[in-house]
Specification:
By secondary structure, the chain is an alpha/beta fold. 18% of the residues lie in helices and 22% in strands. It has 8 helices and 15 strands. The strands form 4 sheets. It has a 9-stranded mixed β-sheet. It is globular and about 65 Å long.
């Protein structure tokens, strides 16, 4: 079956000679893509275009922490590997997509993870957590500032289970109030949330509940576990399934992270094999 896009023919995604099924788990990147609260907007310029040059060339100015992306340990922990120093097998492998539904500001704990997938997770798995928050992905305070998030017990659970990479459909590897959105480091970026949290929590101070700066980032990165933020796309279609994942970043010298195309791959017929590397 052939699919035409702008007059060019492509094989259909789910009907190809390899017998593999591909699922896009990335949000779009581009002009006015939703952005973390204090980052500059993405800028895209056409430096050549058809009417001018007979060719299209574009120049992009962006943070690498926009849309679906992977953090390098050096993003948060000084003296740890940059993105080009992370071994290539870290960006490919098998794992699971697990459903842990969460609402505004709810923590994702180690107990949540154990209940959802403790008996099925394997050492060196990629673990993607679907909280349902990717359905709210847009340029909004709700998505970036009021999402659920991992707390330290979740980070320790990933370490104990020897997970290779963690992915999730929220804005950061930590709860938003353990970032500069809340009372940490350069924050609060949104001071009014202090009173909202006080009411939401039944009278607790956010500084007491979130005393550490990005603790889950630090737990993961110091143990060689990378984190993929803002997972989305066809996430619901592979939730509850074991898949193979590919998400290679740029070979960027001293890079702090990278926008990625996260893809889940399944092989229903079990007929596809990676080449042995035989000489020809």
């Amino acid at each position: 079956m052939v699919k035409k896009i702008r007059g060019v023919s492509f094989e259909e995604n789910l009907d190809n000679e390899m017998g593999l099924e591909f699922y896009n788990l990335s949000h779009r990147f581009g002009y006015q893509s939703p952005n973390w609260p204090y980052f500059e907007d993405v800028k895209i310029e056409r430096i050549h275009y058809m009417a001018k040059s007979g060719v299209l060339s574009q120049r992009i100015t962006t943070s690498m922490h926009n849309t679906t992306h992977i953090d390098a340990p050096a993003h948060v922990v000084q003296g740890t590997p940059f993105i080009d120093e992370v071994p290539l097998p870290h960006f490919f492998g098998s794992g699971i997509v697990v459903s842990i539904p969460k609402k505004m500001w709810e923590p994702i704990t180690g107990d949540d993870l154990e209940k959802a997938c403790g008996k099925i997770v394997r050492p060196r798995d990629v673990v993607i957590v679907n909280t349902g928050w990717h359905h709210q992905y847009e340029d909004s305070e709700d998505y970036f500032c009021k999402c659920p998030g991992f707390v330290p017990s979740a980070g320790q659970w990933f370490v104990d289970k020897k997970v290779k990479v963690v992915g999730h459909d929220t804005q950061a590897n930590d709860h938003p109030l353990a970032t500069a959105i809340g009372p940490q480091r350069n924050g609060p970026l949104h001071p009014h949330l202090k009173e909202e949290y006080f009411k939401w929590s039944g009278g607790r101070d956010w500084k007491d509940d979130f005393p550490e700066w990005e603790p889950v980032h630090r737990i993961l990165f110091k143990n060689g576990i990378l984190g993929i933020e803002n997972v989305g796309g066809d996430l619901d279609k592979v939730t509850g399934k074991r898949c193979t994942f590919a998400f290679f970043p740029w070979n960027w010298d001293r890079g702090d992270g990278c926008i990625i195309r996260l893809v889940a791959i399944t092989d229903p017929g079990q007929k596809y094999r990676i080449e042995k590397g035989e000489k020809f």
